[in-house]
Specification:
Blueprint: E1 2-6, H1 11-22, E2 26-31, E3 43-44, E4 62-65, H2 78-100, E5 108-114, E6 125-126, H3 136-146, H4 149-153, E7 157-163, E8 165-167, H5 172-182, E9 195-196, E10 198-200, H6 201-213, E11 219-223, E12 229-230, H7 231-242, H8 252-259, H9 261-267, E13 272-273, H10 276-280, H11 290-298
Length: about 300
């Protein structure tokens, strides 16, 4: 297949380029700026300015849209929240609109989303049929998924990839906290009772390749491991794998003081999402349980 991919320089995008190329697909990055040196094809767009040439989109079999502002890049000021929202919603709307107008439309549009769609839900087990929650990230995810509607109405298969926290040594959550835990400075956050929906980068890429290959699958999919853990379980497990203490508990009030709204939106929120539709479609996980997954990744 010939596949267009946005967000190709991020953690997930880089992994997908490697995996899809290894599968024999032609992968073309959708980029904001023309690369200084490029050995292959690329398409340039300006999502903030609403500029994307329709002719450049002709001839693709599928589009994988992963672009978006890093939600953990800084405090959630009004300006940063708008950047987070517009980088997802506006870019998706632009891409879906242009795809819907093509003479030769791609058969599939796989668009990133997040389990943040469900909001802070305590111990509730969340599947793809669970309603959306409240809060900033839940509102962004709802608008993000709705922005793909023009592609759906044009007859393109649309898949919403509700990603959990991605575990990899190459970046993301694990790479950020690993030095602290190795120095013995790790610890639970807040009460530690909040649920974390996680997935290894290897399983994430395999899951999306599975969804890309099966044209009968559409709609939302939780891209998470089948065994979410509480923050306390995460802390104990990582410290046990590293054989280091994890005694530095960070109370909720301190996190809120340091990070503001982002503390509640990212670190203290509880989302217990499970991949019901993914497993029902026949997908098998390599890293279904946290401790073996961490031991494999950490050698």
């Amino acid at each position: 297949m010939r596949i267009l991919i946005s967000g190709s320089t991020g953690l997930i995008g880089r992994a997908f380029q490697e995996a899809l190329a290894a599968d024999g697909h032609e992968v073309v990055p959708l980029v904001r700026r023309r690369p200084e040196e490029s050995a292959g094809a690329f398409v340039v767009w300006d999502p903030s300015g609403g500029r994307l040439n329709e002719a450049d989109l002709e001839g693709f079999d599928a589009v994988l849209h992963l672009a978006g502002e890093n939600i953990a890049a800084g405090r959630w000021t009004a300006a940063q929240k708008e950047r987070i929202r517009s980088s997802r919603v506006d870019s998706t709307r632009l891409l879906a609109d242009r795809l819907s107008r093509l003479r030769q439309k791609p058969h599939s549009f796989l668009c990133a989303s997040a389990v943040g769609f469900y909001g802070d839900r305590g111990d509730e087990i969340l599947t793809e049929v669970s309603p959306g929650g409240t809060g900033f990230l839940a509102e962004v995810c709802r608008a993000w998924e709705s922005a793909a509607q023009p592609a759906l109405e044009a007859g393109i298969r649309v898949v919403h990839l509700r990603f959990g926290a991605v575990l990899s040594l190459r970046g993301g959550m694990l790479a950020k906290v690993l030095p602290l835990f190795r120095w013995g400075l790790g610890g639970r956050l807040g009460s530690g009772r909040q649920w974390l929906s996680w997935i290894s980068l290897d399983d994430l890429t395999a899951a999306v390749r599975h969804l890309l290959a099966d044209s009968s699958l559409s709609g939302p999919f939780n891209i998470t491991a089948p065994s979410p853990v509480t923050n306390a379980e995460w802390t104990v497990t990582l410290s046990r794998v590293l054989r280091r203490p994890a005694l530095f508990h960070q109370p909720a009030w301190l996190l809120r003081l340091a990070l503001g709204e982002m503390a509640d939106g990212l670190l203290l929120t509880s989302t217990r999402a499970v991949p019901y539709r993914l497993q029902d479609s026949g997908f098998s996980f390599r890293d279904g349980i946290l401790e073996p997954a961490l031991r494999r990744m950490l050698g």
